[in-house]
């Protein structure tokens, strides 16, 4: 028996988290702590998401899981955009 056969239990399913090409820019926006850089991060993430949605609409590829993740990511960015706008407004009042 090969070593890999002894170490892997075929009865256990291993679920590997899915990652998408646009996730890195989305996570960068979510994790940004410098409010002055926030707008740029949001715009980059939105651009990457829009590009991916365009590809998916043209070739009908992707999974429903990714399509749902794209919708959720855009919702998250909308909230982040509002928070960034509130921060900028508070800075202008000082």
Strand segment tally: 0
Quickly give the structural class.
mainly alpha
User: Rg to the nearest angstrom?
Assistant: 19 Å
Number of helices: 4
**Distance between the terminal alpha carbons, to the nearest Å?**
72 Å
Arithmetic mean of pLDDT: 85
The outline comes out as elongated
The fraction of residues in strands falls at under 5%
Give the ordered list of helices and strands: HHHH
In helices, the fraction of residues equals: over 70%
The largest pleated sheet is described as: none
State the gist of this model.
The protein has 94 residues and is mainly α.
What features would you describe in this structure?
- The chain has 94 residues and is mainly alpha-helical.
- Helices cover 73% and strands 0% of the residues.
- It contains 4 helices and no strands.
- The N terminus is likely disordered.
